[in-house]
Amino acid sequence: MKSIKRLLAFLVFCHGISYAFGQKTYINESFNSETVPSYFESTCDTTKFDVYDGQLVTKSNVVNDVFSISTYIGHRHSAEWSIDVHLPFATSSSNYIEYYLWADSSCLEEATEAICIRIGDTKDQLVLYQKDNDELSLVGASPFGVTHSLSGSMLCTLGADSVLRLSFYDSTKAMVLWEYELDSFSLKRNGYMGILVKQSTSSFHQKHRFDNVYYGIIRRDSIAPQVETLTVLHDSILQLVFTEPVDVNSMNAERFNLLPTQIKPTQIEVQDDTVELMFDEVFITQSYELALDSVSDLFGNYLTQLTLPFDYVKLEAANLHDVLLTEILADPSPSVQLPQHEFIELTNRTDKIIDLNGWIISDRKSESVLDEFYLWPESSVVLVDRSYQNHFAEFKNVMPVSGLISLNNAGDSLLLLDNSRKVIHEVNYLRDWHTEEWKMEGGWSLEMIDVDLPCTESKNWASSTSKTGGSPGTLNSVKAKLFDFEAPRVVNVEVADKYLVLTFDESLLYYDPNEKDFTLEGNDIVSIRKVNPYQLRIELSQELIPGRNYVLQVDGVMDCSGNKVENGTYNVAIGGELVRHCVKINELLYDVSESCAEFIEVYNPTDITYNLNDLFIGYKDSIGRWKNLYEITGHTVLIQPHQYVALSTDTAALKRCKPSAKNTIQALKLPSFVNDGGTLGLSDYMGNVIDSFSYSDDLHFSLLSNTKDVSLERLGHKVENPTWLSAAQTYNYATPGFANSHLAGLTTEKGFCSIATDPVSPNDDGFNDVLVVHYSPVQSSTLVHVRIFDHVGRLVAFPVNTGYVGTDNQFIWDCLGSNGALVASGIYILHLESISVTGQKQVFKKGFTVVR
Predict the structure, then answer these.
(1) H or E segment at 427?
(2) Model confidence at 166, in pLDDT bands (50, 70, 90)?
(3) Which residue in 445, 462, 516, 690 has the most C-beta neighbors within 10 A?
């Protein structure tokens, strides 16, 4: 009897256990209590999980530990599993977790049959594993390298079609990281679901976090769809992305309305959660609202009466010179009032709205890429380096640029390119563009003057006149209207073998090279191409003969303002071989005041063209050795047959001191000219002497009391007669770049004096307003006095008092008396008296009339 009772008790116990296990077909745990729920079992070690801050967390401090937690689940034909995981660490083969959908053992690491998703392992991926008869096999896997610092949700569903569908949503990246389907899958029987953890060190304590564990029926949606994004795909197309797939049948034009235009879409395309609305009318730049109503998801949940505002901006592509570089601060130190950092200003001079996204600013060595920025019509934006954008916080329209190109203080070539690398604008700025020399020292920006002349370069740029040192983001302080009516000029011609390189004084950006625009006598042009906006390279059919001068004719070359060269002629040559006395030292100014500049004039007495780039100039010591040889110029400078060229290291100062100077060349460097005297020489690159000149104060005209700013001139060009004399007073004591005031062998009649304007009428009508007297002395080195007397012999004026003259001279009297007033009408007498250095005297008296 006792045995029967024991059997009945055992059957009741077994039935109770079976009933209890069979009811666990639904689990929905959010871990809101402070302890692990009782139906979770940790049969291997109950101390390694805890609940903290509403999440299930691990707390194992064991090195190289493997532990798990599980719960019994009842068998279902269709089911849903989901879990949130947060793994803020680097996964590896020693650090990963396994989420078990089903296992035949509550101690998951001992299961012989199971299906699980491993998160991590050697290749840092999500892997679906299945175990049969204790044999583990890989079923499916995500791409490599996706599980470091992973945070998201795992969702698995088993439908009536026996398809197991898996997906993992990465909440950090807001994207579905992995999706997979396994056909012909079913749960065999009751079992366990749970989490297995493998960790390498105790540093992972509480690093594994889990939440929202669910197992049960496939949950049906009861929430209406929501709009995640509204995007303008085109000027007449909107794209809506919903939080879930929508019902195609709920998509019709009557459910949408575009305000304020009150138009409806004419075509609707639906693809899962994405809807595209196409309209017949294009959008314009303004604010819109899209009103929608009764949009349904696949479960009949309706989104009603929603209004979505959006702005539309009509963007247009930029053409050449639509956007310009209009202000440059290359040297911000010392600061005037601007931030002590470089900046570049861009200006949209059109009526377009232009997106600068992907545009490039380049200095031909490095590039900076711009972010999205809508540049509105006739507006500006200031580009600054992102690292110091805070310094420009008070300025409007500032765009920070990561790694903005560095601007060279002395000058640089800046290119603005659009996102297809098409050139929009180019500026080759120089520090010399500053209008005031003192602003070159820093703190002042360069500003464009007229945006309608985008490629006139230096003519269209000036120093900012703003009291702050610049006008970034606002109207340029130097803004003005300019006009360009001048055709480009050739400023340099380089010759090499069968090539010419022409350098122009302004940009030829719009010009398309054409062989018909060039003619070179005695040679044919094979091809022509643009080297850069300022240079053209011409290929010739034959090599040029050294020393021979060629004439290049240019007709049709056009600058970017539309001005064309018409019948321009330029000398072209390869310098002839230098021989002794082929180029001569012809004039020297060595003793100068602070307001003047030294120069040495060279003369080509031959019929051959030479290149000054082949010449060197040097100073000799007391025993005739070269102390230094200096290259005269770094580029081709031709000296034509019988041409004078004045060399100076400061041509600007020379022209201020000697306004009649011509053919001046800025020399790279000249020897220091000793005032007392010395020996100068010209040579080739090997130091072979071409010409030399030993100068001293003794060569000056002996009657001159002061020789400062007075040059020495060669009298004639014959080698056997290299005599020198001071330049004449009538030529301002120097003739730089043109024929000397004393020319030995001049054919002008000697001892000749004449009046060129008689009668004289000082009425400013442009005809005979002044008395003009021509005089040629018997010999050079002559002093002259010129006086004016009235008809009764009274001295009226003394135009020339002890004038030192040359071989052919001209004197002018402005008809002013000694009292500074115009003389009265009447007859006057010119009295000219001269005496030469040898004592020879001449006197001329000539009458003339003044008419008023």
Answers:
(1) strand 423-430
(2) very high
(3) 445
Q: Distance between CA 719 and CA 605 in Å, rounded?
A: 11
485: helix, strand or coil: coil
* Helix, strand, coil abundance in the chain, percent, nearest 5: 10, 45, 50
Neighbours of 169 (CB within 10 A): 16
Pairing mode, strands 380-385 and 398-401: parallel
Predicted local confidence at residue 743, as pLDDT: 64
Mean pLDDT of 12-38: 64
Provide the CA 633 distance to its chain's centre, in angstroms: 31
Using DSSP bridges, classify how beta strands 568-572 and 550-554 pair: parallel, antiparallel or unpaired. antiparallel
- For strands 626-631 and 638-639, give the pairing: unpaired
pLDDT tens, residue by residue, 208-231: 999 999 998 888 777 788 999 999
pLDDT of residue 765: 76
Q: How far apart are CA 527 and CA 210, in angstroms?
A: 76
Contact criterion met (CB below 8 Å) for 678 and 617: no
**Model confidence at 45, in pLDDT bands (50, 70, 90)?**
low
Instruction: Round to whole Å and give the CA distance between 81 and 68.
Output: 18
Identity of the amino acid at 484: D
Average pLDDT over residues 471-495: 91
Residue 749: strand pairing partners = none
Cβ contact 215:40 at 8 Å: no
As a whole number of angstroms, the distance between CA 622 and CA 599 comes to 22
Distance between CA atoms of 736 and 334, rounded to whole angstroms? Answer: 40
SS3 of 714, please?
A: strand
CA–CA separation, 371 vs 351, rounded Å?
A: 21
Q: Band of the pLDDT at 718, cuts 50, 70, 90?
A: low
Closest CA relative to residue 178, chosen from 140, 149, 148, 142 = 142
Rg (CA), the chain: 48
SS3 386: helix
Per-residue confidence (pLDDT) for residue 202, from 0 to 100: 83
Angle formed at CA 468 by CA 466 and CA 469, multiple of 5 degrees: 70
Q: Give the residue from 66, 48, 138, 45 showing the smallest Cα distance to 109.
A: 66
Reported confidence tier of residue 331, pLDDT bands at 50, 70, 90: very high
Distance between CA 693 and CA 712 in Å, rounded? 11
* Span 178-205, average pLDDT: 90
Number of H helices, E strands in the chain: 2, 62
Distance from C-alpha of 295 to C-alpha of 241, rounded to nearest angstrom: 12
Which is it for strands 191-199 and 65-73: parallel, antiparallel or unpaired?
A: antiparallel
Q: Is the pLDDT confidence value at 121 over 80? A: yes
Task: Compute, in degrees rounded to 10, the torsion defined by CA atoms 276, 282, 286, 291.
Answer: -40
- 30-44, 151-165, 495-509, 771-785, range with greatest mean pLDDT: 151-165
Whether 124 contacts 147, CB under 8 Å: yes
Q: Give the other-Cβ count within 10 Å of 170's Cβ.
A: 16
The residue length of the chain stands at 852
Task: Please tell me whether residue 47 adopts helix, strand or coil conformation.
Answer: coil
For residue 13, give the 3-state DSSP assignment.
helix
Both ends of the chain: CA-CA distance in Å?
A: 167
- Among 81-85, 625-629, 636-640, name the one with the lowest average pLDDT: 625-629
Tokens of 192: 């366990």
Bridge partners for 129 per DSSP: 116, 138
Cα–Cα distance, 528 to 538 (Å, whole number): 4
pTM over 0.70: no
Query: 472 pLDDT exceeds 90?
Result: yes
